Amino acid sequence: MLAADRVPAGRLRRGLTEPMLPFAVLALLAVAAAAADQAVLCWASVGVLAGYSLSGSV
């Protein structure tokens, strides 16, 4: 493996702790739950998105 192929630990850590990553995952969960006709899971994930955005994390 070449040195150019490696990702520095600091860069990887910043990428994993980016606040938009959990927001995107929760948004995909809400869309998937709506598509699967899972109303309770859909509204729960929408509620989590609202709380996450109101907390100032995004």
TrEMBL record:
Highest taxon above the source species: Bacteria
Name of the molecule in the record: Uncharacterized protein
UniProt organism field: Actinoallomurus acaciae
